[in-house]
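[recover] target loaded
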């Protein structure tokens, strides 16, 4: 597996042609019945007006006369309407954290998240679902909306390729503000996938409240670098003066086995807090280190969690 650098040079770094062929066998799934506006490749439990016959029902005044089966009327002297399986599109929105803390680790969290976003976007577009991409820091910072079909795939990849971690002293993560803005932008029901390390000092419960309810099916994917899970992998030793990469807070520490143990316990507790808040709001949650091969995350673990099928 090739190591992930901070920024890709080509779109093939995000998704190789060979990997795209593997993605063609997958589709984005929803745990809820979310009705789209256009006909796509998703088979619905409802009856509609596509080309595949499903059933008959008796005619009632006001029904469309075009769907009366006149041959059946000639035999039974009774009016019946032909019903067809409805195929509908699914809105798939991928929300990418572009705060400075994402640009960390080996393999790099930001590039890893962009590859996951590219894979989900490709799968959605390949199955004619409506795909939206959003980035956020202190609010929603950029977007590519209402892409549908295979033609926008290069556009989708260029959008992700051009994304950079935000760089500014006064810009830090604010997931609550971003989700509030997202709830106004994303009016169509659908699947929303949050890709973030969730290192946010705000109120996570408030953030998820904006996306909760029956309207959206939310998946939260927390990505951590191996060096964040175990600081010893980053050769953290001695007396250090640490600066928060996002808000500039300073902390002076002396690295010791006891401090490392406390750090790991705090990280584990925080990740558990993120998980509990997600589940409380009805969002599916999963966590992954960037050391997990990217293809395994998409082809195996996202399928196990029900996001892909």
């Amino acid at each position: 597996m090739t190591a992930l650098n901070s920024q890709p040079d080509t779109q093939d770094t995000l998704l190789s042609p060979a990997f795209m062929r593997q993605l063609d066998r997958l589709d984005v799934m929803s745990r809820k019945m979310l009705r789209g506006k256009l006909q796509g490749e998703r088979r619905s439990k409802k009856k509609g007006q596509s080309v595949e016959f499903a059933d008959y029902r008796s005619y009632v005044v006001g029904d469309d006369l075009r769907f009366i089966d006149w041959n059946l009327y000639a035999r039974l002297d009774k009016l019946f309407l032909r019903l067809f399986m409805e195929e509908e599109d699914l809105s798939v929105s991928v929300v990418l954290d572009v705060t400075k803390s994402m640009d960390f680790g080996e393999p790099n969290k930001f590039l890893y998240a962009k590859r996951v976003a590219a894979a989900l976007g490709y799968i959605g577009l390949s199955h004619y679902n409506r795909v939206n991409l959003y980035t956020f820091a202190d609010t929603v910072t950029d977007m590519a909306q209402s892409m549908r079909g295979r033609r926008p795939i290069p556009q989708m990849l260029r959008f992700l390729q051009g994304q950079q971690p935000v760089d500014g002293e006064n810009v830090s993560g604010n997931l609550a503000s971003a989700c509030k803005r997202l709830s106004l932008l994303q009016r169509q029901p659908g699947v929303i996938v949050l890709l973030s390390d969730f290192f946010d000092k705000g109120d996570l419960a408030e953030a998820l409240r904006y996306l909760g309810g029956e309207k959206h099916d939310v998946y939260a994917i927390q990505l951590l670098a191996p060096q964040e899970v175990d600081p010893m992998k980053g050769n953290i030793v001695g007396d250090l003066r640490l600066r928060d990469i996002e808000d500039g807070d300073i902390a002076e520490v002396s690295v010791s086995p006891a401090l490392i143990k406390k750090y790991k316990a705090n990280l584990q507790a925080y990740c558990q807090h993120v998980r509990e808040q997600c589940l409380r709001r009805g969002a599916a949650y999963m966590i992954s280190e960037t050391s997990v091969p990217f293809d395994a995350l998409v082809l195996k673990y996202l399928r196990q969690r029900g996001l892909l099928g």
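[recover] notes: Confidence is low (pLDDT under 50) at residues 1-9, 43-50.
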